[in-house]
Design brief:
This protein is α/β, with parallel strands linked by helices. It has 6 helices and 7 strands. Strand 3, helix 3 and strand 4 form a beta-alpha-beta unit. Helix 2 runs parallel beside helix 3.
Length: 203
């Protein structure tokens, strides 16, 4: 999702930590050796937000997928919606010693806000010009953000990018993996995007 310029300006000018346990980890912004072609001093700031709730079984892979992104500059928000299991503790343990190129923000809600409230709150925290949303059981490939930013930069009229996915069914064998193919550019109205239940929180 690409913000409008006015939204970006407002976020940059007035940004307060939100939530009862908001921890910001400022990382070394030295670009990684293998950074992608889209990365650079003129590249737009992107935000990758990962939403968690009682997903301690999936946290590690979801966090490592986020941290592995090749695109820079990137802000990564790892947000827990008041989980009753060990989700928040696992998230913090995975990033406490992080020394990579990205800025990491941890947010933990005092009370469970539900999906809509959680997303709204994280959008208030984020400051990226381009925002990527991911569920706590999603694993992002390292070039996820980089490839999507290239699409958005190539076509200024494009406001949103979705992806092909690979689905894992529990702890099943490799034969249980299903892949969906990306079929190329498809144009939808905002109303179609927001009301079509086939869209996943992954764009």
């Amino acid at each position: 999702y690409k913000r409008q310029d006015q939204q970006v300006a407002e976020k940059a000018a007035d940004r307060e930590p939100v939530g009862w346990q908001t921890i910001m980890v400022m990382a070394d912004r030295t670009p990684p050796e293998n950074e992608g072609e889209s990365s650079g001093s003129d590249a737009p700031l992107a935000t990758l937000a990962v939403f968690f709730y009682n997903q301690e079984k999936f946290v590690e892979q979801a966090v490592r997928g986020a941290l592995s992104q090749t695109y820079s500059p990137l802000e990564i928000i790892l947000s827990d919606d008041g989980s009753s299991d060990a989700t928040a503790d696992v998230i913090e343990s995975l990033v406490v010693d992080y020394g990579g190129p990205h800025e990491i923000i941890l947010n933990r809600n005092r009370n469970n806000l539900g999906l809509t409230g959680h997303v709204s709150k994280v959008m208030d925290i984020s400051k990226g010009e381009i925002v990527f949303l991911s569920g706590g059981d999603d694993i992002s490939m390292p070039n996820r953000v980089e490839k999507a930013v290239k699409v958005l930069e190539k076509d200024p009229s494009c406001m949103c990018v979705s992806y092909g996915t690979t689905r894992f069914h529990g702890d099943g064998p490799p034969s249980s993996v299903e892949s969906s193919k990306t079929v190329g550019p498809v144009r939808y109205s905002w109303m179609e995007y927001l009301t079509n239940c086939s869209f996943h929180l992954n764009g």
